[in-house]
Specification:
The complex is a heterodimer of chains A (152) and B (162). In chain A, 85% of the residues lie in helices and 0% in strands. Chain A has 152 residues and is mostly helical. With 162 residues, chain B is mainly α. Classes of the chains: A mainly alpha (152), B mainly alpha (162).
Chain lengths: 152, 162
């Protein structure tokens, strides 16, 4: 099955249909995805801490250990709600070029995070992480506008 | 004297200002400013959360609440400034529409109470001697803080759905 075929199949699943037909489903999912950013923001704080730009009185190791469960929860919330947002209209997202860029950026950020876990938290890796997150948030907003533009 | 009509006039003035026109007129500006607003939200939300979680005794227990809050204060104020600046830019782009948007007004009411609460009650409790603040009060303050800021966030998200 091609990727497009897969997205077309996804669009016919009962979950996808349920999200589309519910008037509250999509706004709630999108709100969770947006507010989940706050939990996720702890990862940004961690990057800023390593760069010596924030929370300098707290050792980086203490932050990463103590906040790890919350950051993990943030990742899970963002992934689950993000997949549900995608399931609303999979074929539209498939055809959206900014969405493809966002997926690539997410893969890059995952690789970077994996490298960070394995090695030392270096200033370069944390700067890359911050730049990628900024680009991902920008791409997310652009997806919305390009989808709106396409449907007009 | 402040009449209802003068609020609308103020909104129209914001919309017709060169800043409002600039954000409205460019295809890139609005999403870029929105992205800035969201990144600031992530930092601000995290800066509020780590202190509120600490008030619940969840995470960063080795620091005193006051010590952690002092350390997080520049992040909190910096991201709040960015939120207010980008927020005003988004508002100015389409101010008259927001005047008739119930979600916008609900966000502003929550924002007012969240700001007042954060810089009065919450600030007093987190800077107070921990032995003098009962754990129940700490938790209540954290809960109210999270509830008020969630109201701001949900209201903000709802603006787009109206």
């Amino acid at each position: 099955m091609s990727l497009l075929g897969f997205c077309q199949w996804l669009e016919q699943t009962s979950l996808s249909v349920a999200i589309r037909e519910s008037s509250w489903g999509f706004p709630i999912i999108e709100s969770v995805h947006t507010l989940g950013l706050c939990l996720f923001g702890m990862a940004i704080l961690m990057d800023l801490r390593v760069l010596g730009l924030a929370l300098t009185r707290v050792p980086a190791r203490e932050i990463s250990l103590d906040l790890a469960p919350w950051m993990r929860a943030g990742v899970v919330i963002m992934m689950v709600s993000g997949i549900l947002v995608f399931l609303n209209t999979p074929v539209e997202y498939y055809n959206n070029s900014v969405f493809r860029i966002k997926v690539i950026l997410l893969l890059l950020v995952a690789v970077n995070a994996w490298a960070l876990r394995r090695g030392r938290r270096t200033a370069i890796a944390c700067s890359v992480s911050l730049a990628l997150w900024a680009a991902i948030v920008l791409a997310s907003r652009l997806i919305t506008y390009s989808l709106l533009g396409a449907s007009e | 004297m402040i009449a209802v009509g003068s609020v609308l006039a103020l909104f129209r003035w914001c919309q017709n200002s060169s800043l409002g026109a600039a954000v409205r007129g460019s295809q890139w500006m609005f999403p870029a400013v929105e992205a800035g607003h969201l990144i600031a939200l992530a930092v601000f939300g995290a800066a509020v959360l780590i202190v509120d979680l600490r008030l619940w005794d969840l995470g960063l227990r080795q620091r005193s609440v006051a010590d952690l809050a002092r350390s997080a204060q520049p992040l909190l104020l910096g991201s709040l400034a960015l939120l207010l600046i980008t927020g005003y830019m988004l508002f100015a782009a389409d101010a008259e529409r927001y005047y008739y948007n119930a979600a916008f007004w609900s966000k502003m009411v929550f924002l007012f109470f969240a700001l007042v609460f954060t810089f009065t009650v919450r600030q007093t409790v987190i800077m107070a001697d921990e032995t003098r603040v009962g754990p129940l009060w700490s938790r209540l303050v954290a809960l109210v803080s999270l509830a008020l800021w969630s109201g701001v966030g949900i209201g903000g998200k709802a603006i787009g759905f109206y």
